[in-house]
Write a structure and sequence with these properties.
Helix 3 crosses helix 4 and helix 4 crosses helix 5. The longest helix has 18 residues. The chain is built from ten helices and twelve strands. 36% of the residues are buried. It has 317 residues and is an alpha/beta fold.
Length: 317
């Protein structure tokens, strides 16, 4: 069953230098209980995309459908109802938590705001959520600065789950954590997805992580989706030159294995008032004159495998 559908979504910011195209004509669908990984370099629009979907930022154009309902421009009352179903886990577990609130107060805050449960029911729900995410009861009166990064992120996860949502945007939820802690949080998210039938948009720049957690993957470059496919297929047979370069940069834990790295040269195109043509052309090893004037469209090259490249068939012969 299709849970979320995004059609031609755009988010532009007006700057002193012109119009910044942070998210530009992005489309995708996510089935219930699945994970869509969104990857790309810093500044490609991943986090902005997640915030626009959740209405933390207003969209410039395009549509967002949730369970078939167009929620692009809903009123405050309906938005409050939707926020029960749609939550976010932020990247930095320290800055996203109120330093003056204890663990139990932080997790209870969404329930207190909604005024639907009494004090005893709220306390029971907080204890339940702490147990679900693996936080010991002894931390309920602790403050964020007294805990390590992994426990702080578990607080953020518990807070996002306390209203029993169906859809969660995971905005680089492990990038600020140590590697050993990353594995614990990722496995926790996978267990929660299985047990609670959650649907994720998993935003990250770490391709090793996204391969492990995602069913489908979108690769973004300067606000646009350049490749989209099932995760396994993307890693086995990438088609876009940018995706190939990203995959070639994944470190291999074998000192005897010599990997063929694809080095990207040239300068980044500006996302402010972008010129016509492919935005990756200045860094692409296959670019020709046509690439600098003709913008590629996201097209289905193989079943469920979409690529935005004018010469994708020639490159992948």
């Amino acid at each position: 069953m299709k849970l979320l559908e995004v059609k031609n979504l755009k988010k532009y910011f007006n700057t002193s230098s012109g119009m910044l195209h942070a998210v530009d004509n992005v489309s995708f669908t996510i089935d219930e209980g699945k994970t869509l990984g969104v990857v790309g370099e810093s500044g490609c629009g991943k986090s902005t995309l997640g915030r626009v979907i959740l209405h933390l930022l207003d969209n410039t154009d395009g549509n967002i459908f949730y369970k078939g309902e167009d929620i692009t421009n809903v009123g405050k009352k309906r938005l409050k109802e939707l926020q029960r179903d749609m939550q976010i886990i932020f990247q930095d577990p320290f800055s996203s938590l109120n330093p003056r609130m204890t663990v139990s107060q932080t997790i209870a805050e969404p329930l207190i705001i909604r005024k639907e449960l009494n004090r005893k029911e709220i306390d029971n729900k907080v204890k339940e959520m702490m147990d679900v995410v693996g936080l010991s009861k002894r931390f309920e009166n602790s403050y964020p600065h007294e805990l390590d990064g992994g426990r702080r992120q578990r607080i953020g996860i518990a807070r996002s789950l306390v209203l029993n949502p169906k859809f969660i945007v995971c905005d680089e939820p492990v990038s600020a954590l140590d590697v050993s802690i990353q594995a614990q949080i990722i496995n926790l998210l996978l267990d929660l997805q299985k047990n609670m039938k959650l649907t994720y948009v998993f935003i990250t720049h770490d391709l090793s992580v996204v391969k492990y957690v995602s069913h489908n993957i979108c690769v973004m470059y300067l606000g646009q989706v350049v490749e989209q496919s099932p995760a396994k297929e993307l890693f086995n047979a990438p088609m876009h030159p940018y995706t190939k370069a990203l995959l070639s940069a994944i470190p291999i834990a074998d000192i005897k294995y010599k990997k063929n790295r694809i080095l990207l040269k040239g300068e980044l195109s500006s996302p402010i008032n972008p010129k016509p043509g492919c935005r990756f052309a200045k860094r692409c090893n296959y670019a020709v004159d046509e690439c600098h004037c003709k913008e590629p469209k996201l097209q289905e090259i193989e079943p469920n495998h979409f690529v935005a490249c004018n010469f994708v068939k020639e490159i992948n012969k």
